[in-house]
Write a structure and sequence with these properties.
Chain lengths: ~180, ~350
Protein backbone atom coordinates (compact mmCIF):
# COMPACT_ATOMS: atom_id res chain seq x y z
CA UNK A 1 0.00 0.00 0.00
CA UNK A 2 2.85 2.39 0.84
CA UNK A 3 4.18 1.87 -2.70
CA UNK A 4 0.81 2.49 -4.25
CA UNK A 5 0.30 5.86 -2.61
CA UNK A 6 2.84 7.82 -4.69
CA UNK A 7 1.38 6.37 -7.86
CA UNK A 8 -2.13 7.33 -6.84
CA UNK A 9 -0.95 10.85 -6.02
CA UNK A 10 0.81 11.09 -9.38
CA UNK A 11 -2.34 9.93 -11.14
CA UNK A 12 -4.41 12.56 -9.38
CA UNK A 13 -1.92 15.31 -10.13
CA UNK A 14 -0.97 14.48 -13.70
CA UNK A 15 -4.03 12.89 -15.30
CA UNK A 16 -6.06 16.11 -15.40
CA UNK A 17 -3.02 17.86 -16.88
CA UNK A 18 -2.84 15.25 -19.62
CA UNK A 19 -6.51 15.69 -20.31
CA UNK A 20 -6.09 19.46 -20.35
CA UNK A 21 -3.27 19.04 -22.85
CA UNK A 22 -5.61 17.14 -25.17
CA UNK A 23 -8.34 19.71 -24.88
CA UNK A 24 -6.91 22.41 -27.22
CA UNK A 25 -6.30 19.79 -29.91
CA UNK A 26 -9.87 18.58 -29.48
CA UNK A 27 -11.23 22.11 -29.71
CA UNK A 28 -9.20 22.71 -32.84
CA UNK A 29 -10.50 19.49 -34.35
CA UNK A 30 -14.11 20.45 -33.67
CA UNK A 31 -13.54 23.93 -35.09
CA UNK A 32 -12.03 22.41 -38.20
CA UNK A 33 -15.04 20.11 -38.46
CA UNK A 34 -17.45 23.03 -38.17
CA UNK A 35 -15.55 24.85 -40.92
CA UNK A 36 -15.69 21.82 -43.21
CA UNK A 37 -19.38 21.15 -42.54
CA UNK A 38 -20.20 24.79 -43.29
CA UNK A 39 -18.08 25.21 -46.40
CA UNK A 40 -18.68 21.65 -47.56
CA UNK A 41 -22.38 22.44 -48.04
CA UNK A 42 -23.64 19.80 -45.58
CA UNK A 43 -26.36 22.22 -44.45
CA UNK A 44 -27.69 22.47 -48.00
CA UNK A 45 -29.43 19.13 -47.65
CA UNK A 46 -29.25 18.22 -43.97
CA UNK A 47 -30.71 21.47 -42.60
CA UNK A 48 -34.25 22.06 -43.88
CA UNK A 49 -35.02 25.27 -45.69
CA UNK A 50 -37.84 27.41 -44.33
CA UNK A 51 -39.65 30.16 -46.23
CA UNK A 52 -38.87 33.62 -44.84
CA UNK A 53 -39.66 37.16 -46.04
CA UNK A 54 -36.28 36.93 -47.73
CA UNK A 55 -37.09 33.68 -49.43
CA UNK A 56 -36.00 30.17 -48.41
CA UNK A 57 -33.29 30.08 -45.76
CA UNK A 58 -31.79 27.27 -43.65
CA UNK A 59 -33.83 26.76 -40.49
CA UNK A 60 -30.96 26.68 -38.02
CA UNK A 61 -33.30 25.69 -35.19
CA UNK A 62 -33.32 22.34 -37.00
CA UNK A 63 -29.66 22.43 -37.99
CA UNK A 64 -28.40 19.17 -39.48
CA UNK A 65 -31.49 17.23 -38.34
CA UNK A 66 -32.45 16.06 -41.85
CA UNK A 67 -35.87 15.78 -43.42
CA UNK A 68 -38.53 16.94 -40.90
CA UNK A 69 -40.61 13.99 -39.69
CA UNK A 70 -43.81 16.04 -39.85
CA UNK A 71 -43.47 16.56 -43.59
CA UNK A 72 -44.85 13.30 -44.94
CA UNK A 73 -43.92 12.20 -48.45
CA UNK A 74 -45.93 9.25 -49.73
CA UNK A 75 -44.75 8.72 -53.31
CA UNK A 76 -42.04 9.72 -55.77
CA UNK A 77 -42.68 12.90 -57.73
CA UNK A 78 -44.13 12.47 -61.23
CA UNK A 79 -41.67 13.49 -63.90
CA UNK A 80 -41.91 13.82 -67.64
CA UNK A 81 -39.74 14.55 -70.61
CA UNK A 82 -36.01 14.72 -70.06
CA UNK A 83 -36.43 15.69 -66.38
CA UNK A 84 -35.25 12.98 -64.03
CA UNK A 85 -36.08 14.20 -60.56
CA UNK A 86 -37.55 16.71 -58.13
CA UNK A 87 -36.88 17.99 -54.64
CA UNK A 88 -39.03 18.91 -51.67
CA UNK A 89 -39.23 22.63 -50.80
CA UNK A 90 -37.07 22.02 -47.74
CA UNK A 91 -34.38 20.49 -49.99
CA UNK A 92 -34.36 17.49 -47.67
CA UNK A 93 -36.27 15.00 -49.84
CA UNK A 94 -35.21 14.04 -53.35
CA UNK A 95 -37.15 12.10 -55.92
CA UNK A 96 -35.48 10.35 -58.85
CA UNK A 97 -35.02 6.99 -60.54
CA UNK A 98 -33.91 5.56 -57.18
CA UNK A 99 -37.23 6.45 -55.52
CA UNK A 100 -37.29 9.06 -52.77
CA UNK A 101 -34.33 9.70 -50.49
CA UNK A 102 -34.42 11.77 -47.33
CA UNK A 103 -31.45 13.58 -45.86
CA UNK A 104 -30.33 12.01 -42.61
CA UNK A 105 -30.44 13.42 -39.11
CA UNK A 106 -26.75 14.02 -38.43
CA UNK A 107 -27.22 15.32 -34.89
CA UNK A 108 -26.22 13.09 -31.96
CA UNK A 109 -29.78 12.49 -30.85
CA UNK A 110 -29.65 9.14 -29.03
CA UNK A 111 -32.99 7.99 -30.42
CA UNK A 112 -33.13 9.32 -33.98
CA UNK A 113 -29.62 10.46 -34.93
CA UNK A 114 -28.40 8.50 -37.95
CA UNK A 115 -24.85 8.39 -36.62
CA UNK A 116 -25.82 7.28 -33.14
CA UNK A 117 -24.39 3.80 -33.62
CA UNK A 118 -21.50 4.83 -35.85
CA UNK A 119 -17.91 4.57 -34.73
CA UNK A 120 -15.44 7.05 -36.16
CA UNK A 121 -14.03 4.26 -38.30
CA UNK A 122 -17.47 3.43 -39.68
CA UNK A 123 -18.09 7.11 -40.47
CA UNK A 124 -14.89 7.25 -42.52
CA UNK A 125 -15.68 3.98 -44.25
CA UNK A 126 -19.18 5.19 -45.08
CA UNK A 127 -17.88 8.25 -46.87
CA UNK A 128 -15.10 6.33 -48.58
CA UNK A 129 -17.31 3.52 -49.90
CA UNK A 130 -20.77 5.08 -50.23
CA UNK A 131 -22.16 2.26 -48.12
CA UNK A 132 -24.02 2.54 -44.85
CA UNK A 133 -21.48 2.00 -42.05
CA UNK A 134 -18.98 1.17 -44.77
CA UNK A 135 -20.40 -2.27 -45.51
CA UNK A 136 -24.17 -2.01 -45.70
CA UNK A 137 -26.70 -0.65 -48.14
CA UNK A 138 -25.74 2.01 -50.65
CA UNK A 139 -26.17 5.64 -49.76
CA UNK A 140 -28.75 7.09 -52.13
CA UNK A 141 -28.38 10.16 -54.35
CA UNK A 142 -27.82 13.04 -54.14
CA UNK A 143 -25.36 12.52 -51.27
CA UNK A 144 -22.02 13.49 -52.86
CA UNK A 145 -19.96 10.87 -51.05
CA UNK A 146 -17.59 10.26 -54.01
CA UNK A 147 -16.24 13.78 -53.48
CA UNK A 148 -16.48 14.03 -49.71
CA UNK A 149 -14.86 10.61 -49.51
CA UNK A 150 -11.71 12.07 -51.01
CA UNK A 151 -11.10 14.21 -47.93
CA UNK A 152 -8.18 13.27 -45.72
CA UNK A 153 -8.70 11.06 -42.69
CA UNK A 154 -8.03 14.06 -40.44
CA UNK A 155 -10.70 16.14 -42.17
CA UNK A 156 -13.31 13.38 -41.99
CA UNK A 157 -12.45 12.77 -38.33
CA UNK A 158 -12.88 16.48 -37.69
CA UNK A 159 -16.33 16.41 -39.29
CA UNK A 160 -17.28 13.43 -37.17
CA UNK A 161 -16.00 15.13 -34.00
CA UNK A 162 -18.02 18.25 -34.82
CA UNK A 163 -21.21 16.31 -35.55
CA UNK A 164 -20.85 14.45 -32.25
CA UNK A 165 -21.21 17.64 -30.25
CA UNK A 166 -23.81 19.69 -32.16
CA UNK A 167 -27.19 20.17 -30.51
CA UNK A 168 -29.15 16.88 -30.54
CA UNK A 169 -32.52 17.22 -32.30
CA UNK A 170 -35.13 14.51 -32.03
CA UNK A 171 -36.37 14.00 -35.57
CA UNK A 172 -37.11 10.59 -37.04
CA UNK A 173 -36.30 10.83 -40.72
CA UNK A 174 -38.54 8.50 -42.78
CA UNK A 175 -37.20 5.48 -44.63
CA UNK A 176 -36.50 5.90 -48.35
CA UNK A 177 -39.34 5.11 -50.75
CA UNK A 178 -38.88 2.68 -53.65
CA UNK A 179 -39.19 3.90 -57.25
CA UNK A 180 -42.66 4.12 -58.76
CA UNK A 181 -43.55 0.89 -60.53
CA UNK B 1 -3.67 -29.01 -60.41
CA UNK B 2 -4.32 -30.45 -56.99
CA UNK B 3 -7.93 -30.16 -56.04
CA UNK B 4 -8.84 -29.48 -52.45
CA UNK B 5 -12.48 -30.09 -51.83
CA UNK B 6 -14.59 -30.10 -48.74
CA UNK B 7 -16.04 -33.51 -49.33
CA UNK B 8 -15.00 -36.31 -47.05
CA UNK B 9 -12.35 -38.62 -48.38
CA UNK B 10 -11.04 -41.94 -47.13
CA UNK B 11 -7.96 -41.56 -44.94
CA UNK B 12 -4.68 -41.63 -46.79
CA UNK B 13 -2.90 -43.72 -44.21
CA UNK B 14 0.77 -43.34 -43.29
CA UNK B 15 2.12 -44.49 -46.66
CA UNK B 16 -0.33 -42.25 -48.44
CA UNK B 17 0.80 -39.29 -46.39
CA UNK B 18 4.42 -40.07 -47.21
CA UNK B 19 3.55 -40.23 -50.90
CA UNK B 20 1.63 -36.96 -50.68
CA UNK B 21 4.54 -35.32 -48.92
CA UNK B 22 6.92 -36.58 -51.60
CA UNK B 23 4.69 -35.21 -54.35
CA UNK B 24 4.43 -31.92 -52.52
CA UNK B 25 8.21 -31.75 -52.24
CA UNK B 26 8.59 -32.32 -55.96
CA UNK B 27 6.02 -29.63 -56.68
CA UNK B 28 7.75 -27.18 -54.38
CA UNK B 29 11.19 -27.86 -55.84
CA UNK B 30 9.77 -27.45 -59.34
CA UNK B 31 8.15 -24.21 -58.28
CA UNK B 32 11.39 -22.84 -56.93
CA UNK B 33 12.95 -23.03 -60.38
CA UNK B 34 10.54 -20.44 -61.64
CA UNK B 35 10.67 -16.76 -60.89
CA UNK B 36 8.22 -15.82 -58.14
CA UNK B 37 5.45 -13.57 -59.33
CA UNK B 38 6.39 -10.04 -58.38
CA UNK B 39 3.75 -8.21 -56.40
CA UNK B 40 3.37 -4.83 -58.01
CA UNK B 41 1.06 -1.96 -57.19
CA UNK B 42 -0.93 -2.01 -60.42
CA UNK B 43 -2.85 -5.08 -61.61
CA UNK B 44 -2.02 -6.30 -65.12
CA UNK B 45 -4.59 -5.15 -67.68
CA UNK B 46 -5.06 -8.70 -68.95
CA UNK B 47 -5.96 -11.81 -66.94
CA UNK B 48 -3.46 -13.85 -68.95
CA UNK B 49 -0.67 -11.94 -67.20
CA UNK B 50 -1.76 -12.72 -63.65
CA UNK B 51 -0.15 -16.15 -63.67
CA UNK B 52 -3.33 -18.20 -63.42
CA UNK B 53 -2.81 -20.07 -66.67
CA UNK B 54 0.05 -22.19 -67.92
CA UNK B 55 -1.33 -21.71 -71.42
CA UNK B 56 -3.94 -19.03 -71.91
CA UNK B 57 -4.83 -20.11 -75.44
CA UNK B 58 -6.05 -23.48 -74.16
CA UNK B 59 -7.05 -22.04 -70.76
CA UNK B 60 -4.87 -24.60 -69.04
CA UNK B 61 -4.48 -23.71 -65.38
CA UNK B 62 -0.92 -23.66 -64.04
CA UNK B 63 -0.55 -27.05 -62.36
CA UNK B 64 1.28 -25.51 -59.42
CA UNK B 65 -1.86 -23.75 -58.21
CA UNK B 66 -4.17 -25.48 -55.77
CA UNK B 67 -7.85 -25.69 -56.60
CA UNK B 68 -10.14 -25.53 -53.60
CA UNK B 69 -13.81 -25.31 -52.65
CA UNK B 70 -15.13 -23.82 -49.42
CA UNK B 71 -17.78 -25.94 -47.76
CA UNK B 72 -20.07 -22.92 -47.27
CA UNK B 73 -19.76 -20.96 -50.52
CA UNK B 74 -20.96 -17.42 -50.99
CA UNK B 75 -24.17 -17.14 -53.02
CA UNK B 76 -23.69 -15.14 -56.21
CA UNK B 77 -26.99 -15.48 -58.02
CA UNK B 78 -26.34 -19.09 -58.97
CA UNK B 79 -22.94 -18.52 -60.53
CA UNK B 80 -20.68 -21.54 -60.83
CA UNK B 81 -17.32 -20.82 -59.28
CA UNK B 82 -13.83 -22.22 -59.50
CA UNK B 83 -11.08 -21.14 -57.12
CA UNK B 84 -7.31 -21.45 -56.93
CA UNK B 85 -4.61 -20.37 -54.55
CA UNK B 86 -0.90 -19.91 -55.20
CA UNK B 87 1.73 -19.54 -52.52
CA UNK B 88 5.24 -18.29 -53.26
CA UNK B 89 7.68 -21.20 -53.52
CA UNK B 90 8.94 -22.42 -50.18
CA UNK B 91 6.41 -20.40 -48.19
CA UNK B 92 3.55 -21.51 -45.96
CA UNK B 93 0.42 -20.12 -44.37
CA UNK B 94 0.77 -19.36 -40.66
CA UNK B 95 -2.26 -20.77 -38.87
CA UNK B 96 -1.09 -20.02 -35.33
CA UNK B 97 -4.25 -18.01 -34.94
CA UNK B 98 -6.77 -20.57 -36.22
CA UNK B 99 -9.36 -17.90 -37.03
CA UNK B 100 -7.05 -15.52 -38.87
CA UNK B 101 -4.53 -17.32 -41.01
CA UNK B 102 -1.60 -15.22 -42.15
CA UNK B 103 -0.73 -15.60 -45.81
CA UNK B 104 2.79 -14.87 -47.09
CA UNK B 105 3.45 -11.90 -49.33
CA UNK B 106 2.96 -12.95 -52.92
CA UNK B 107 -0.03 -15.19 -52.16
CA UNK B 108 -2.59 -15.05 -54.95
CA UNK B 109 -6.17 -16.29 -55.01
CA UNK B 110 -8.37 -16.40 -58.08
CA UNK B 111 -12.10 -16.96 -58.35
CA UNK B 112 -13.79 -17.58 -61.69
CA UNK B 113 -17.54 -16.92 -62.10
CA UNK B 114 -19.59 -18.60 -64.81
CA UNK B 115 -23.27 -18.33 -65.67
CA UNK B 116 -24.94 -20.93 -67.86
CA UNK B 117 -21.55 -22.43 -68.65
CA UNK B 118 -19.98 -19.17 -69.81
CA UNK B 119 -17.12 -17.47 -68.02
CA UNK B 120 -18.19 -13.98 -67.01
CA UNK B 121 -15.53 -12.73 -64.64
CA UNK B 122 -12.40 -13.77 -62.76
CA UNK B 123 -11.33 -12.01 -59.60
CA UNK B 124 -7.87 -12.01 -58.06
CA UNK B 125 -6.56 -10.91 -54.71
CA UNK B 126 -2.84 -10.75 -54.15
CA UNK B 127 -0.85 -10.01 -51.04
CA UNK B 128 1.71 -7.30 -51.57
CA UNK B 129 5.15 -6.99 -50.01
CA UNK B 130 3.82 -4.40 -47.56
CA UNK B 131 1.16 -6.81 -46.34
CA UNK B 132 -1.74 -5.09 -48.14
CA UNK B 133 -4.04 -7.10 -50.37
CA UNK B 134 -4.62 -5.88 -53.89
CA UNK B 135 -7.97 -6.60 -55.53
CA UNK B 136 -8.79 -6.78 -59.22
CA UNK B 137 -11.51 -8.24 -61.43
CA UNK B 138 -11.41 -9.22 -65.10
CA UNK B 139 -14.41 -9.36 -67.42
CA UNK B 140 -14.43 -12.09 -70.04
CA UNK B 141 -15.24 -11.19 -73.61
CA UNK B 142 -18.41 -12.62 -75.12
CA UNK B 143 -16.41 -15.19 -77.10
CA UNK B 144 -14.50 -16.27 -73.99
CA UNK B 145 -11.13 -15.58 -75.59
CA UNK B 146 -9.93 -12.64 -73.49
CA UNK B 147 -10.49 -11.19 -70.03
CA UNK B 148 -9.70 -7.55 -69.40
CA UNK B 149 -9.29 -5.62 -66.15
CA UNK B 150 -12.50 -3.82 -65.20
CA UNK B 151 -12.40 -0.23 -63.89
CA UNK B 152 -11.92 0.28 -60.16
CA UNK B 153 -15.61 1.12 -59.77
CA UNK B 154 -16.70 -2.20 -61.30
CA UNK B 155 -18.89 -3.09 -64.25
CA UNK B 156 -22.65 -3.31 -64.37
CA UNK B 157 -24.57 -5.46 -66.79
CA UNK B 158 -21.94 -8.20 -66.98
CA UNK B 159 -24.52 -10.98 -67.40
CA UNK B 160 -28.33 -10.87 -67.70
CA UNK B 161 -30.08 -12.57 -64.80
CA UNK B 162 -33.63 -12.11 -66.04
CA UNK B 163 -36.36 -9.81 -64.79
CA UNK B 164 -34.36 -6.76 -65.81
CA UNK B 165 -31.55 -7.66 -63.41
CA UNK B 166 -27.95 -8.36 -64.24
CA UNK B 167 -24.73 -9.48 -62.62
CA UNK B 168 -22.44 -6.66 -61.51
CA UNK B 169 -18.70 -7.13 -61.34
CA UNK B 170 -17.81 -5.42 -58.07
CA UNK B 171 -15.56 -2.42 -57.78
CA UNK B 172 -12.52 -2.41 -55.55
CA UNK B 173 -14.39 -0.67 -52.73
CA UNK B 174 -17.05 -3.37 -52.76
CA UNK B 175 -14.35 -6.06 -52.68
CA UNK B 176 -12.94 -4.39 -49.59
CA UNK B 177 -16.38 -3.92 -48.01
CA UNK B 178 -16.57 -7.68 -47.55
CA UNK B 179 -12.93 -8.73 -47.42
CA UNK B 180 -11.91 -6.10 -44.87
CA UNK B 181 -14.76 -6.89 -42.52
CA UNK B 182 -12.78 -9.16 -40.20
CA UNK B 183 -9.30 -10.12 -39.11
CA UNK B 184 -8.35 -12.00 -42.26
CA UNK B 185 -9.06 -10.67 -45.73
CA UNK B 186 -9.10 -14.19 -47.17
CA UNK B 187 -12.64 -15.47 -46.67
CA UNK B 188 -13.05 -18.81 -48.39
CA UNK B 189 -9.73 -20.37 -47.42
CA UNK B 190 -9.65 -20.88 -43.67
CA UNK B 191 -10.22 -23.30 -40.85
CA UNK B 192 -14.00 -23.59 -41.07
CA UNK B 193 -14.30 -23.35 -44.83
CA UNK B 194 -11.70 -25.99 -45.67
CA UNK B 195 -12.69 -28.37 -42.90
CA UNK B 196 -10.82 -31.69 -43.29
CA UNK B 197 -8.87 -30.50 -46.32
CA UNK B 198 -6.64 -28.44 -44.09
CA UNK B 199 -5.03 -31.73 -43.07
CA UNK B 200 -3.78 -32.13 -46.63
CA UNK B 201 -2.25 -28.66 -46.51
CA UNK B 202 -0.48 -29.51 -43.28
CA UNK B 203 0.84 -32.74 -44.77
CA UNK B 204 2.30 -30.76 -47.65
CA UNK B 205 3.90 -28.21 -45.36
CA UNK B 206 1.75 -25.44 -46.79
CA UNK B 207 -0.03 -24.78 -43.50
CA UNK B 208 1.98 -24.47 -40.30
CA UNK B 209 1.33 -23.63 -36.69
CA UNK B 210 -2.28 -24.73 -36.46
CA UNK B 211 -2.90 -25.49 -32.77
CA UNK B 212 -3.78 -29.13 -32.16
CA UNK B 213 -7.07 -28.18 -30.51
CA UNK B 214 -8.16 -26.32 -33.63
CA UNK B 215 -6.86 -29.07 -35.85
CA UNK B 216 -9.25 -31.42 -34.16
CA UNK B 217 -12.16 -29.05 -34.60
CA UNK B 218 -15.22 -30.64 -36.16
CA UNK B 219 -18.83 -29.66 -35.82
CA UNK B 220 -20.46 -33.03 -35.55
CA UNK B 221 -22.18 -32.34 -32.22
CA UNK B 222 -24.49 -29.79 -33.83
CA UNK B 223 -27.70 -31.06 -35.46
CA UNK B 224 -27.31 -31.32 -39.24
CA UNK B 225 -29.82 -28.60 -40.07
CA UNK B 226 -28.26 -26.19 -37.60
CA UNK B 227 -24.83 -26.98 -38.96
CA UNK B 228 -26.00 -26.25 -42.51
CA UNK B 229 -27.88 -23.09 -41.52
CA UNK B 230 -25.16 -21.57 -39.37
CA UNK B 231 -22.60 -22.64 -41.95
CA UNK B 232 -24.52 -20.71 -44.57
CA UNK B 233 -24.58 -17.67 -42.30
CA UNK B 234 -20.83 -18.08 -41.71
CA UNK B 235 -20.08 -18.12 -45.43
CA UNK B 236 -22.54 -15.45 -46.53
CA UNK B 237 -22.82 -13.06 -43.59
CA UNK B 238 -19.93 -13.70 -41.19
CA UNK B 239 -17.36 -11.74 -43.17
CA UNK B 240 -19.09 -8.53 -42.04
CA UNK B 241 -21.01 -9.70 -38.98
CA UNK B 242 -18.30 -10.92 -36.63
CA UNK B 243 -16.72 -10.09 -33.31
CA UNK B 244 -13.56 -8.49 -34.68
CA UNK B 245 -14.49 -6.29 -37.63
CA UNK B 246 -15.74 -2.72 -37.99
CA UNK B 247 -19.37 -3.79 -37.46
CA UNK B 248 -18.74 -5.57 -34.15
CA UNK B 249 -20.69 -2.86 -32.32
CA UNK B 250 -23.85 -4.27 -33.91
CA UNK B 251 -23.46 -7.31 -31.67
CA UNK B 252 -24.35 -9.72 -34.46
CA UNK B 253 -21.79 -12.51 -34.68
CA UNK B 254 -22.42 -14.92 -37.54
CA UNK B 255 -18.82 -15.92 -38.19
CA UNK B 256 -17.83 -19.19 -36.58
CA UNK B 257 -14.63 -19.50 -34.60
CA UNK B 258 -12.42 -22.40 -33.64
CA UNK B 259 -13.16 -21.94 -29.96
CA UNK B 260 -16.87 -21.24 -30.03
CA UNK B 261 -18.18 -22.74 -33.24
CA UNK B 262 -21.63 -21.43 -34.09
CA UNK B 263 -22.57 -20.61 -30.50
CA UNK B 264 -22.11 -16.82 -30.95
CA UNK B 265 -24.44 -16.97 -33.96
CA UNK B 266 -27.15 -18.52 -31.82
CA UNK B 267 -26.55 -16.25 -28.85
CA UNK B 268 -26.59 -13.06 -30.90
CA UNK B 269 -29.73 -13.88 -32.89
CA UNK B 270 -32.16 -16.13 -31.01
CA UNK B 271 -34.73 -14.00 -29.22
CA UNK B 272 -32.55 -10.94 -29.76
CA UNK B 273 -34.56 -7.83 -30.58
CA UNK B 274 -33.93 -5.91 -33.79
CA UNK B 275 -32.07 -2.80 -32.70
CA UNK B 276 -32.72 -0.57 -35.68
CA UNK B 277 -35.28 -1.88 -38.20
CA UNK B 278 -34.08 -1.54 -41.79
CA UNK B 279 -36.24 0.31 -44.30
CA UNK B 280 -38.96 -1.99 -45.58
CA UNK B 281 -38.79 -4.48 -42.70
CA UNK B 282 -42.25 -5.67 -41.71
CA UNK B 283 -43.38 -4.46 -38.32
CA UNK B 284 -43.92 -7.95 -36.94
CA UNK B 285 -40.28 -8.97 -37.51
CA UNK B 286 -39.15 -7.78 -34.11
CA UNK B 287 -36.47 -10.39 -33.38
CA UNK B 288 -33.33 -11.15 -35.33
CA UNK B 289 -34.45 -14.77 -35.08
CA UNK B 290 -37.67 -15.70 -33.34
CA UNK B 291 -37.25 -19.45 -32.77
CA UNK B 292 -40.23 -21.35 -34.09
CA UNK B 293 -41.51 -18.26 -35.91
CA UNK B 294 -39.80 -17.63 -39.25
CA UNK B 295 -42.32 -14.91 -40.11
CA UNK B 296 -41.16 -12.87 -37.14
CA UNK B 297 -37.45 -13.31 -37.87
CA UNK B 298 -35.80 -10.22 -39.35
CA UNK B 299 -32.68 -12.14 -40.40
CA UNK B 300 -34.76 -14.36 -42.66
CA UNK B 301 -36.79 -11.43 -44.03
CA UNK B 302 -33.63 -9.62 -45.02
CA UNK B 303 -31.98 -12.62 -46.67
CA UNK B 304 -35.24 -13.26 -48.55
CA UNK B 305 -35.45 -9.67 -49.84
CA UNK B 306 -33.79 -7.92 -52.74
CA UNK B 307 -35.25 -4.49 -51.98
CA UNK B 308 -31.90 -2.65 -51.81
CA UNK B 309 -32.28 -0.95 -48.41
CA UNK B 310 -33.47 -4.21 -46.83
CA UNK B 311 -31.62 -7.00 -48.60
CA UNK B 312 -28.83 -9.05 -47.07
CA UNK B 313 -26.12 -9.37 -48.13
CA UNK B 314 -26.30 -5.75 -49.28
CA UNK B 315 -24.03 -6.28 -52.28
CA UNK B 316 -22.86 -8.95 -54.69
CA UNK B 317 -26.29 -10.45 -55.31
CA UNK B 318 -29.43 -9.52 -57.21
CA UNK B 319 -31.44 -12.73 -56.81
CA UNK B 320 -32.72 -14.41 -53.66
CA UNK B 321 -31.07 -17.72 -52.79
CA UNK B 322 -34.34 -19.66 -52.58
CA UNK B 323 -32.70 -22.86 -51.43
CA UNK B 324 -30.98 -21.07 -48.56
CA UNK B 325 -34.14 -19.24 -47.57
CA UNK B 326 -35.97 -22.55 -47.34
CA UNK B 327 -33.14 -24.06 -45.29
CA UNK B 328 -33.12 -21.12 -42.88
CA UNK B 329 -36.92 -21.03 -42.69
CA UNK B 330 -37.02 -24.70 -41.78
CA UNK B 331 -34.21 -24.33 -39.23
CA UNK B 332 -35.94 -21.41 -37.52
CA UNK B 333 -39.31 -23.17 -37.60
CA UNK B 334 -37.81 -26.23 -35.91
CA UNK B 335 -35.85 -24.22 -33.33
CA UNK B 336 -36.86 -23.56 -29.79
CA UNK B 337 -36.11 -20.49 -27.71
CA UNK B 338 -32.76 -20.45 -26.00
CA UNK B 339 -33.32 -21.20 -22.36
CA UNK B 340 -31.16 -22.61 -19.59
CA UNK B 341 -33.66 -25.42 -19.24
CA UNK B 342 -33.21 -26.50 -22.84
CA UNK B 343 -30.26 -28.71 -23.53
CA UNK B 344 -28.05 -27.53 -26.34
CA UNK B 345 -25.08 -29.33 -27.84
CA UNK B 346 -21.70 -28.90 -26.23
CA UNK B 347 -20.32 -25.43 -26.88
CA UNK B 348 -17.64 -25.15 -29.51
CA UNK B 349 -15.95 -27.72 -31.69
CA UNK B 350 -15.81 -31.30 -30.70
CA UNK B 351 -13.90 -34.21 -32.01
Amino acid sequence: MKHALPWMLAAVLFAPAALRAQEPARIEQVKRGEYLVTTGLCHDCHTPLAMTPNGPEPDMTRALSGHPQDMVVTAPAPTSGPWMGSFWPTLTAWSGPWGVSFSANLTPDPETGRLRDFTEDQFLRTLRTGRHQGQGRQILPPMPWPFIGKMTDDDLKAIFAYLRQVKPINNKVPDPLPPAQ
Amino acid sequence: MTPITATSRPGLGFNGLLAAAAVALIVLVASMKSTPHAATGVPPPDLRDTGLYADFETLQIDARHLAFSPQYPLWTDGATKRRWISLPPGSAIDASDPDAWVFPAGTRLWKEFSFEGKRVETRIMERQADGQWRYAAYAWSADGRTAQLVPANGKRGAWPLGGGKSHTIPGVNDCKACHQGGRSEVLGFGLIQLSPDRDGLIARGLLVGLPPSARAARWTAVPAIERAATGYLHGNCGHCHNEQGPLRNLGLFLRQTAAEGSEPAIASTFDQPVKKPAPGLSADATSRIAPGQPERSALLKRIASRYPPLQMPPLGTELVDRQAVELLRRWIAESEPVSPSIHRPEKGPTQ
